[in-house]
From TrEMBL:
Residues of the SIS domain: 126-263
UniProt protein name: RpiR family transcriptional regulator
Signal peptide (from-to): none
UniProt source species: Pseudonocardia kunmingensis
Domain annotation HTH rpiR-type: ranges: 3-79
Gene Ontology MF terms: carbohydrate derivative binding; DNA binding; DNA-binding transcription factor activity
UniProt-listed Pfam families: HTH_6 (PF01418), SIS (PF01380)
PROSITE patterns, per database record: HTH_RPIR, SIS
Positions of transmembrane segments: none
Family annotation (InterPro entries): Homeodomain-like_sf, HTH_RpiR, RpiR-like, SIS_dom, SIS_dom_sf, WH-like_DNA-bd_sf
Lineage: Bacteria, Bacillati, Actinomycetota, Actinomycetes, Pseudonocardiales
GO BP term, example: carbohydrate derivative metabolic process
């Protein structure tokens, strides 16, 4: 298992002074920014001094910020490779007696970190965009397709018009013909920027639809195409799935919307229950 910034933070967190701990947590959560920014830029983002940033790098066992940045670049490259990600995860789950517990703890840690990684102004804009849309179109590829389906299904159950897609290749072109200006496109793209992700976001812009991207590793490139970007905490440096935070975001989005439309949301769920009785054949009115 590679000796990464996250693993060093995990083993040294209790010994770091508060200011350095804040810097270390920021850097572990924003590897793409750390790889590209200077000590001064990182310091401004955290609200500290560049000297504290350099000190933090050394407290984490690096010779300086330059070595830490090389480590960040290496981690970014590895998470592009699914086999490398799985290998690293298995390396962290090396205790045969407590593998499941490690996954549970790491998953809880990732979900718990959403409170810090999600910007409240972006969240409010995302909820408003969903409520104002004619339809929410959820899209994801591979495992993210399951998140898209979960999100659309959850939103339908609280009264929003919502559909999901995990279509790739040429068949996607047919679906994109149906994208409309009143839609909100919600794209789940945790780690890899597939060509289809870029195409659906570009199509949304062409037709005047708003777009929201939920991502762990692609915040910078997706900001060039999506109106809103929600960043989720790193998962590839732990045993947690890259989908766990996205599922939590989809659920939180549904709950927030339902709370703002409580009466209609409850009424929709009641209608769903009635339809279930009809489908199952135990409708009391029949």
């Amino acid at each position: 298992m590679p000796d990464t910034l996250s693993s060093r933070l995990e083993s040294r967190a209790e010994r770091l002074p508060p200011a350095e701990l804040a810097v270390a947590r920021y850097m572990a959560a924003h590897l793409d920014l750390v790889a590209a920014r200077s000590a001064l830029e990182i310091a401004e983002a955290v609200g500290t001094s560049d000297a504290t940033v350099v000190r933090t790098a050394r407290s984490l066992g690096y010779t300086g910020l330059r070595e830490l940045k090389r480590d960040a670049v290496a981690v970014l490259a590895r998470r592009e490779d699914p086999a490398a990600v799985l290998s690293d995860r298995l390396g962290r789950a090396d205790d045969p007696q407590h593998r499941a517990q490690r996954v549970f703890r790491d998953s809880a840690r990732v979900v718990g970190a959403l409170d810090e990684s999600i910007r409240l102004d972006v969240w409010e804009a995302a909820v408003t965009a969903a409520l104002e849309s004619d339809r929410v179109v959820c899209y994801g590829i591979g495992p993210a397709g399951a998140v898209a389906e979960f999100c659309a299904n959850s939103l339908r159950r609280v009264g929003l018009a919502a559909v999901a897609s995990a279509t790739t290749g040429l068949s996607l072109a047919d679906e994109l013909l149906g994208l409309r200006g009143g839609d909100l496109l919600v794209v789940f793209a945790p780690l890899r920027l597939f060509r289809e992700i870029s195409v659906v976001l570009d199509r949304a812009r062409e037709v005047g639809a708003r777009s929201l991207a939920v991502t762990e590793a692609l915040a910078q490139p997706l900001r060039e195409r999506a109106d809103l970007v929600l960043e989720t905490p790193p998962s590839t440096t732990a045993t947690a799935s890259e989908s766990i935070a996205a599922f939590a975001v989809a659920h939180a989005l549904t709950i927030d919307i339902a709370a703002r439309t409580r009466e209609s949301s409850v009424a929709t769920m009641s209608r769903l229950n009635e339809l279930r009785h009809r489908v199952s054949g135990d409708d009391p009115e029949r």
